[in-house]
Amino acid sequence: MNNRKGFNLLFWAVTIVLLAIGVVGLYWRLTQGHRLTNYGQLIVWGLWVALYIYFIGLSAGAFLISSLVYAFGVERFRPIARLALFTALISLLAALLNIWFDLGHMERFYEVFTRPHFYSMMAWMVWLYTAYFILLLFELWFEIRIDLIRWSKKEGLSGALCRFLTFGSKDESEKGRARDMRVVRVLGSIGVPLAILFHGGVGALFGVVAARPAWHSGLFPLLFLVSALVSGGGLLLAIYAFLSPDRGSEQHASLVADLGKLVLGLTLLDVIFTFAEYSIALYGSIPSDVAPLLKIMTGPFWYAF
Q1: Alpha-carbon distance 214 to 299, whole Å?
Q2: How far is CA 277 from CA 1, 2, 7, 83, 176, in A?
Q3: pLDDT tens, 165-176?
Q4: pLDDT at 41
Q5: Alpha-carbon torsion 138, 139, 144, 145, what sign?
């Protein structure tokens, strides 16, 4: 118990410090724009875009793993299904926040809806993100609706918040729960192609850039999808392994082992895809294809890749 309390204190202390640093960075961004980012002709994107790609992958991967339960009925991962949905939602918000910071005019983000360009792949990605965000909100609400009703009976701010989030719903019956699960199953099934579309679309957005030979490949969208499953599964594994309230139980150990095997298998698939991408380009010895790969593997920032 003392070890757990110490871990919680350390976790919140680190979180508060990181939030304070983030607030300072946000102030600089809002007051000085992109002047501190040191962009140039060689480096035209910074950490905001990199973090956007990373968090979008986490969201898509976590959601697809939740769909193993909700859409495909893999009950083995039922204990982490709700966690996966919540992780997908938070990761999506983090991704959109990061890419919003990268905009030259942050206040104009809404114009993708009011002045759309229907042939823009980036515009379609934003619309898919919006649909995915709405789907996540509804799916998570139906998943936790009965719990919100129970929590709404508590006193204080948390109870008031839960009463608001129930939106007047009071049905705690088994019939109501079964109806909720049917809705969740439908939403989870709709979300699978949606998640594949928007994250595969991110890979396609990079893949169609012919001026970047390292990206210009039909394999790139698939690499994005597999990498999303690896990163999303890895995040769920870490959260459940270290923060789950049932740590130390037999069920916890068994589920951690099974989830670890799933992540390992996906990692091996990711390695195979990456090897195929690199080996073909290196064997072909086309200078424009080889140069960026050598820069990635042996350049001054090799450790970042």
Answers
A1: 15
A2: 49, 49, 42, 33, 49
A3: 888 888 778 888
A4: 67
A5: positive
Q: Go through the domains of the chain in sequence order and give each one's CATH number.
A: 41-304 (1.20.1630)
Dihedral of CA atoms 160, 164, 167, 170 in degrees, nearest 10, equals -10
How far is the C-alpha of 267 from the C-alpha of 190, rounded, in Å?
A: 26
Question: What are the b/e assignments for 273-304, b being 16+ CB within 10 Å?
Answer: beeebbeebeeeeeeebbeebeeeeeeeeeee
User: Rounded to whole angstroms, how far apart are CA atoms 54 and 45?
Assistant: 14
- CB contact at 8 A, 190 and 22: no
The answer to whether 86 and 126 are in contact (CB under 8 A) is no
Specify whether the CB–CB gap between 263 and 230 falls below 8 A: yes
171-208 burial, b for 16+ CB within 10 Å, e for fewer?
eeeeeeeeebeeebbebbebbbebbebbbbbbbbbbbe
Low-confidence ranges of the chain (pLDDT < 50): none
pLDDT in tens, 36-59: 777 766 676 778 888 888 899 899
CA-CA-CA-CA torsion for 122, 127, 130, 132, nearest 10 degrees?
A: -90
* Number of neighbouring beta carbons within 10 Å of residue 108: 11
Strand ranges, E, within the chain: none
Residue type, position 262, single letter: L
